[in-house]
Design a protein that fits this description.
Elements: H1 3-19, E1 22-23, H2 24-38, H3 51-54, H4 56-73, E2 79-83, H5 89-100, E3 106-110, H6 114-123, E4 128-130, E5 142-147, E6 156-161, E7 164-172, E8 178-186, E9 203-206, H7 208-224, E10 226-235, E11 245-248, E12 251-253, E13 263-265, E14 268-269, H8 270-279, E15 283-289, H9 290-297, H10 299-309, H11 314-325, E16 334-340
Parallel strand pairs: 2-3, 2-5, 3-4, 5-10, 10-14
Antiparallel strand pairs: 1-7, 6-7, 6-9, 7-8, 10-16, 11-12, 11-13, 15-16
């Protein structure tokens, strides 16, 4: 355990000793804030690789998709906004593509990690950083992209017990580590009717932060115009299950071991995000599988062109295309959702 991780673990232990067990959401919040603040977690030397780092084709498809909307609506001014931009790779590839269509929006990044901000600025030198959503521009439509952003937000977990549904909490275990268990707080009112009688041990998750963010952004889009593009792994209908997971050095790890040293994520509830957008007056397209969405935008043709231009990298390009599109890789696990203002054109890539 590194000194940084030990510091986070000590802080969590002291908090639990002082006030009792904490919610799974609070544990995730503290651990991930420390994790993303300490260093760049992406790449081969990091803990995981996101789609933009697999191939430039991913960001290029996003750029084509955004440009199509811009060309069909032609706002006089607009802003590109990315939530959790990683290393800035997606934005750099997407914006390079939009330039080909004569479109160069101002760029705004919602990012709190100093380590990642430095790399994002190297990739997109003109980017403007924001610590909160309230500071995003209010004077023009927003083209908002959130790739693997919502999965890193903390989730609350409820567990079915003999005494009813209880919020799941994190406490110290006998080894001075951490473990999750049912807490004392009743949570029956948070459970959808269809799950109230689920078997003991069943887990239901909610992500208040995700709902709040989509509500805020949807209100902006309803007033200013524009679109929100969400790409993440998750489920499209309400479901039961413990989806909290950890990754370290590209391998799954124990979520309750080494807090601050591992990447904690949970599956995204696309049903909830869709409802938040609709309730704010937006139209919604999807969610669709990432593979189908990328294929509909022309990634196969782009892969052929890249391979022909770089024959020595043909196998690498083909492998990257398979990883992004194939159902047994990222193609079916990852979903794509678009929420857009009422008077804007229907986005491409989602079928009828």
């Amino acid at each position: 355990m590194s000194s940084d991780s030990e510091e986070v673990a000590v802080r969590l232990r002291q908090q639990i000793e002082a006030s009792g067990p904490i919610s799974v959401a609070e544990y995730m919040r503290v651990a991930n804030t420390a994790y993303y603040g300490r260093a760049d977690p992406l790449g081969v030397e990091g803990d995981f690789i996101t789609a933009p780092e697999i191939s430039q084709m991913f960001g290029e498809m996003v750029g084509i998709w955004l440009s199509d909307l811009w060309l069909r609506h032609r706002p006089a001014r607009c802003h590109y906004v990315e939530l959790g931009p990683g290393r800035g790779t997606l934005a750099a590839d997407a914006l390079r593509t939009t330039q080909r269509f004569g479109w160069e929006p101002s760029v705004h990044f919602f990012e709190n990690s100093p380590a990642l901000r430095a790399k994002q600025l190297r990739a997109v030198p003109d980017a403007i950083f924001h610590d909160n959503l309230e500071s995003l521009p209010t004077d023009a439509p927003l083209f908002i992209v959130a790739n693997e952003f919502f999965d890193a937000l903390p989730v609350r977990q409820m567990v079915a017990t003999q005494a009813g549904w209880r919020e799941r909490v994190v406490a110290r275990n006998s080894e001075a580590g951490f473990a999750a268990m049912p807490g004392a707080t009743a949570a029956d009112d948070l459970i959808p009717e269809q799950f109230r009688s689920a078997a003991m041990g069943s887990i239901y998750e909610i992500c208040p932060d995700a709902s709040s963010i989509v509500q805020q952004l949807s209100a902006r889009l309803a007033k200013q115009g524009g679109v929100l593009l969400v790409i993440d792994y998750g489920y499209i209908y309400p479901a039961l299950g413990d989806t909290v997971q950890a990754v370290e050095n590209h391998r799954y790890a124990d979520p309750f071991h080494n807090p601050g040293q591992i990447d904690l994520t949970a599956h995204v509830d696309f049903y909830e995000l869709s409802n938040c957008a609709k309730n704010a007056g937006l139209l919604v397209a999807g969610p669709n599988d990432q593979g189908a969405w990328l294929s509909g935008l022309g990634i196969d043709r782009r892969a052929q062109i890249l391979a022909a231009s770089n024959p020595n990298k043909s196998a690498e390009i083909t492998a990257a295309r398979h990883r992004l599109v194939d159902p047994d890789a990222m193609g079916a696990l990852f979903k794509v959702l678009a929420a857009y203002a009422q008077d804007w054109p229907q986005p491409e890539g989602f079928g009828l």
